[in-house]
Amino acid sequence: MTSRLVSKGAVNVFLLIAAVYTLLPLTWLLFASTKSLSDLYSTPGFALSDLNLGANLSAVAAEGDGIFFRWYVNSLLYAGGGAALGALISVACGYAFDKYDWRGKERLFGLVLLGVLVPTTATAIPLYLLVSKVGLVNSFWSVFIPALVHPFGVYLARVLSTGYVPGEVLEAARSDGAGEIRTFVSVALPMLRAAYVTIFLFQFTGIWNNFFLPLVMLSDQHLFPLSLGLYSWNTQVTAFPEYSTLVITGSLLSVVPLLLVFVFLQRFWRAGMTAGSVK
Amino acid sequence: MSSSTQRSKGGRWAVLLLTAPFFVLFAAVVIAPLGYALWLSLFSEQSSGLGFGGTESVFTGLGNYLTTLADQAFRDGFAIVALYAALYIPLMLGGALALALLLDSGIAILRRFFQLALFMPHVVPGVIAGLIWLYLYLPGISPIVSALRDGGIEWDFLGDHVLGSVVNVAVWEWIGYNMIIFFAALQAIPREVLEAATMDGAGPIRVALRVKLPLIRGAVITALLFTVIGSLQLFNEPMVMDGVSNGIVSTWTPNMYSYAEAFGKNDIGQAAAASVLLAVLAAVLSYFVTKWGNKK
Predict the structure, then answer these.
(1) What are phi and psi of B47, to 5 degrees?
(2) Cβ of A189: how many Cβ atoms within 10 Å?
(3) Is B185's CB within 8 Å of A278's CB?
(4) Residue B17 belongs to a domain
(5) How far apart, in Å, do the first and last CA atoms of chain A sit?
(6) Minimal Cα–Cα distance from A153 to chain B, Å?
(7) Which domains does chain A have, with CATH numbers?
(8) What is the per-residue pLDDT for B26?
(9) ipTM above 0.90, yes or no
(10) Could you tell me if B77 and B53 lie in one domain?
(11) How far apart are CA B218 and CA A67, in angstroms?
(12) Which residue of B has its CA nearest to A256?
């Protein structure tokens, strides 16, 4: 009995240490964003000092005529718009792979899987070279269009479509005289709603996290997403130390909404990760 | 499955309509750029005449590849990434597996909380994770550096030990994500299998290592595959630290090398060659990981 108690204690202590490791940097960020530049250097990292959060927030808002909010909107457009449209493209494609048969299908699916494995950063510079040839470099579309392609989403959609859309329902719709596309839009798509949200979430975080592509494509600050904007602020820190409070407070502002979204949408990303692991 | 549709004309049109958007975009943003890079990598910009009248493209065949492969900076980049992978992959995947097994041991409390807490860092974008840790490594601001200093340890996170510091950021970002994947796979193991092993007198540790681990091999191999490819792409975290750390040079990893070639030196041919080499290496590595995973 005691040995069971000891091992129960040990197991939970290990898990607790791991949780402290993952949560501590975020807690530090919270503390740091409430401090003025001098307190950042002179007070302990996990202690409160004079509350300076308000001043930090207005400094972030004032910098570059409110460019931070521009970056915020850009990130939402790239990630929100890109994932909303991209997930639909993936679901349609994955559904076709699941429910139809055609010649060369599995070979084509192999191409999708290859797309999952080719590093996105390996295509970023080639993409830049091609896009600059076409003259679209430093435009909204140069970041938005590449983000629409999400081979992993097609893979997930195929797996999830097998589970969510029974073939009999489609047969029933067809015998009622509905065309193939109509069947997809009004019968299958509603059943794939959860799959759509899952794929949307994966793609959203992927685009939100993407840094290499906007870095090579964009030179106009007004087109930057958050990650690139904060990076550009941070490159100023060595010359102008006051940028560090901007970077810290800006980082907090850009992380909090994502954390909330993930806490509230747990069910969906869990479903995607389970489908990805048990293949 | 739906064999009635495969022969009908409507079915063929439906397939075309449903798959075309993806494949058209895929061709435009993955295949075409790689093909174009392959083409560009065969040419070199050379100044014509005495340096007047700009440059012209000269076909050099595999010249750019040879120059890139012979470049010490490029090879150093691969050495760094290999070292990084040798530290990062066992630490992160081993840690994630251990945590998943602990969580699945049946005696863990607060399982939902632990899953959420460990997953949190994954939601933080790589650049921002790099920025947060950069400050946690920076003497003067970092509570970690000052705590170590109080304990009599001088640890230069951004100098000699910068590789370990980058590994730590990556472990922080990915350990919870992979733990959740492994945990989901563990939960899918039929309980009868585990009960049978326990009836045979196997202790919990033995069950974990001898029964559970082999049963989630598929999930582990998949995670390994993605981790290998991710390691090869190392860019965001060192790029963020580049300005402050004197342990990182602008060509520190292969991706940083191609970036520096394209934007620092404007050597398009060589940047293209470096990108193609990286893509080929990723394909070769994933082939071997999959093959090795299927064999054992």
Answers:
(1) -70, 135
(2) 17
(3) yes
(4) yes
(5) 39
(6) 10
(7) 65-277 (1.10.3720.10)
(8) 95
(9) no
(10) no
(11) 46
(12) B124
